[in-house]
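Fig. S4 source data, part A: sequence.
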Amino acid sequence: MPLKDLRDLGEGELAQKERDIREELFRLRLRGATGQIENKMKARMVRRDLARVLTLQRERAAGTRR
């Protein structure tokens, strides 16, 4: 998800997005462990989305914004 779209979300929506991404990453890890994953790059993209969300949450908590 693009950072611009994430910046438009409120605090509650951002927290929900984090939970959803963590759950999706968990499911991808399970599928990867059992060999059922088709696109191995999907996990990498999901980890990057999680990093974007966490970075945005830290920016808001610190009161800084780029």
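Fig. S4 source data, part B ends here. DSSP finds three helices and no strands in the chain.
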